[in-house]
Write a structure and sequence with these properties.
The protein has 4 helices and no strands. The chain is mainly alpha-helical. Helix 2 runs antiparallel to helix 3. It is elongated, with a radius of gyration of 35 Å.
């Protein structure tokens, strides 16, 4: 009987120790602001260095061989930093960001289409309201002469 109780206590202890390990694996790691800020600062620094390299090459301070080696080195460094940033920000945020962008683009398209329809209707209304006094052909605001008969418009 004591042996069974000892086994139950041992199993409970192992379960108590294993539960945090499973929970830690299932929960996404929280990104600290300082880590993200450090990576963003590194990215900006590499970008600035690449711009300076390009300028030095254009000014003739670097020959093509040196430029090529340094450019490759900093491009690899920038790619590594961008991969780290992507890993920290997570894959789910990319899908959510894409969905939000699509919603905003759709809203802008609807707004633009509505505005374009309104402008077209206004142009046609404006054209119908104004007609050449000589031949009756519609004209738009700003026209100086009739397109059909050449008569001066008011």
């Amino acid at each position: 009987m004591e042996f069974v109780v000892a086994l139950l206590v041992l199993a409970a202890a192992l379960a108590a120790l294993a539960i945090p390990l499973y929970r830690a694996h299932a929960q996404p790691a929280l990104v600290s602001a300082s880590t993200l800020d450090d990576l963003l600062a590194q990215r900006d620094g590499v970008y600035a260095t690449l711009r300076d390299l390009e300028l030095d090459r254009q000014l003739g301070k670097l020959d093509e061989a040196d430029y090529g080696a340094l450019h490759e080195k900093y491009m690899v460094q920038a790619a590594a930093i961008l991969r780290e940033l992507d890993a920290l920000q997570g894959e789910g945020s990319t899908a959510e960001a894409s969905a939000e962008i699509e919603r905003q683009v759709s809203a802008l398209r609807k707004t633009h289409a509505t505005a374009a329809r309104g402008q077209t209707a206004a142009k046609h209304k404006d054209a119908r309201a104004r007609e050449c006094p000589n031949c009756g052909k519609p004209y738009l605001r700003g026209d100086k002469f009739c397109a059909r008969c050449g008569h001066a418009l008011p």
